[in-house]
Amino acid sequence: MLKALVVTALALSLMACGGLSGAPANDVIEQAVVRQFETTQQELQRQLSLEDASASSFQVSGVKVDRTQRMTLQNLPAYQVQGTYRLTGRGLSRAVRRARNPFEIYLQSQDEGETWVLVKPGI
């Protein structure tokens, strides 16, 4: 299923208190969704050679989790989390407001669930 993992430089030092025993808390999930969005935006700006990154600013809010599935990655507990978020802000040429943007993230538990790492499936 997952061929390789690329660890994003994100260690969320927050305690888990989600619905599933040991699952990441909602604030951890929200921070991970925001980080994933920011990383994607930065990569797009780099690929499109956009020098003025300040020309676009967005805010992720209203994160809603639809599904959380427990799994094991490299012998450590992990969770696949799917849901939606609301995006507002200003793009390069216009205001943006979109509700119900889908997301899928993978969070891996470190240090007995006190630290979470956002991981991305690789090729």
Spell out the blueprint of helices and strands.
Layout lengths: L4 E8 L13 H22 L9 E17 L2 E15 L4 E16 L4 E7 L2
Antiparallel strand pairs: 1-5, 2-3, 3-4, 4-5
Plain-language structure description:
With 123 residues, the protein is an alpha+beta fold. Helix content is 18%, strand content 51%. It contains one helix and five strands. The relative contact order is 0.27. The model is unreliable at 1-19 (pLDDT under 50).
Characteristic terms for this protein:
single chain, 123 residues, alpha+beta, 5-stranded antiparallel sheet, disordered N terminus
Mean pLDDT: 78
Q: Give the helices and strands as they follow along the chain.
A: EHEEEE
First-to-last CA distance: 10 Å
Strand content: over 45%
Major beta sheet summary: 5 strands, antiparallel
Low-confidence stretches: 1-19
Summarize the structure.
With 123 residues, the chain is α+β, with helices and mostly antiparallel strands. It is built from 1 helix and 5 strands, in the order βαββββ.
